[in-house]
């Protein structure tokens, strides 16, 4: 096909869940409730950690950064998903689609790096407790956090650049709940094998490398904890890791199946279901996981509430 016959696509139609057209209004209110809870929960943890001096430790600094990150991560996709549930015209501009992909993947990559940093922090705290205060200083914690953000923001630049150069000359219906690399690549009017390969290599390096580092940290943590003679000591050591490990399993359990594969797509419903898990459910559950399973955060929330009542 000659390039002169191409009519460049300027906007895409995001189909979302086409089989659930009859319950769009119910889905809107459910998603809105989840989104508001996600915002309030993550914002609460972020503010409590910063306001309570007892939580000014590297572990909780990382938790507060993760909560702040989730606010941006969900803002990249959920507001547009909510708008599409109410709108007959479920469109997004070409540039808007690329921006959504960029922010979703850059913040997702930042979360991968941050979860890895949190695993390393737990490794130092449990496996090298005597050296932990001198190794994991607030300065190092800040440098690691900045590195996570910079690495994440730079991550999808190459993929976005390659996609922006592709010709989109006809089909513009995205069979997904938001813009993402696999469904957008399937609409290009040319061979995208290079894009798929680059996407696979970058995601494999980013996701698998961080996941293996996290597993390595926890293997060493488990070996150390098993050497603790008392059952109470073992429970205390594991309790400091339980929340982080739960988040890791939920987050990586979905993105590994979604992005570390060479095929552009499996079942469309399968892809949509996975996307709901890592884009909506994981950020929604994080505040509950870190607050309900963490005695110190729960006590910090109670202290802030008592302080608010006294001031009021």
Question: Topology, pairings included?
Answer:
Blueprint (H helix, E strand, L loop, with lengths): L10 E4 L9 H28 L6 H18 L2 H9 L4 E3 H34 L4 H4 L2 H17 L2 H8 L8 E2 L6 H5 L7 H34 L4 H29 L8 H25 L2 H17 L1
Parallel strand pairs: 1-3
Antiparallel strand pairs: 1-2
GO molecular function: G protein-coupled receptor activity; olfactory receptor activity
InterPro entries: GPCR_Rhodpsn (IPR000276), GPCR_Rhodpsn_7TM (IPR017452), Olfact_rcpt (IPR000725), Olfactory_GPCR1 (IPR050939)
Membrane topology: Multi-pass membrane protein
Features:
transmembrane; olfactory receptor activity; disulfide bond; transmembrane helix; about 300 residues; mainly alpha; Rhopdopsin 7-helix transmembrane proteins; three-stranded mixed beta sheet; olfaction
């Amino acid at each position: 096909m000659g390039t002169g016959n191409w009519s460049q696509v300027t906007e895409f139609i995001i189909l979302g869940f086409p089989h659930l057209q009859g319950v769009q209004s119910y889905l809107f209110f459910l998603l809105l409730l989840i989104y508001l809870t996600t915002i309030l929960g993550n914002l609460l943890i972020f503010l409590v950690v910063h306001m309570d001096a007892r939580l000014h430790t590297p572990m909780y600094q990382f938790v507060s950064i993760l909560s702040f990150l989730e606010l941006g991560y969900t803002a990249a996709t959920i507001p547009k998903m909510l708008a599409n549930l109410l709108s007959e015209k479920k469109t997004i501009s070409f540039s808007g689609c690329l921006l959504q992909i960029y922010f979703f993947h850059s913040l997702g990559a930042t979360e991968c790096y941050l979860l890895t940093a949190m695993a390393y922090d737990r490794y130092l705290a449990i496996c090298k407790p005597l050296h932990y205060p001198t190794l994991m200083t607030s300065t190092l914690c800040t440098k690691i956090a900045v590195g996570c953000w910079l690495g994440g923001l730079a991550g999808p630049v190459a993929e976005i650049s390659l996609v922006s150069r592709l010709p989109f000359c006809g089909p513009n219906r995205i069979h997904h709940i938001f813009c993402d690399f696999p469904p957008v690549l399937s609409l290009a009017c040319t061979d995208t094998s290079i894009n798929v390969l680059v996407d696979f290599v970058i995601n494999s390096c980013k996701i698998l490398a961080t996941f293996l580092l996290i597993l390595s940290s926890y293997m060493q943590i488990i070996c150390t904890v098993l050497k603790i003679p008392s059952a109470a000591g073992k429970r205390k050591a594991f309790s400091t890791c339980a929340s982080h490990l739960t988040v890791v399993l939920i987050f990586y359990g979905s993105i590994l199946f979604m992005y570390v594969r060479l095929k552009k797509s499996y079942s469309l419903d399968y892809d949509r279901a996975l996307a709901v898990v890592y884009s909506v459910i994981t950020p929604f559950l994080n505040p509950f996981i870190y607050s309900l399973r963490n005695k110190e955060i729960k006590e910090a929330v109670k202290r802030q509430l008592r302080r608010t009542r006294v001031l009021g």
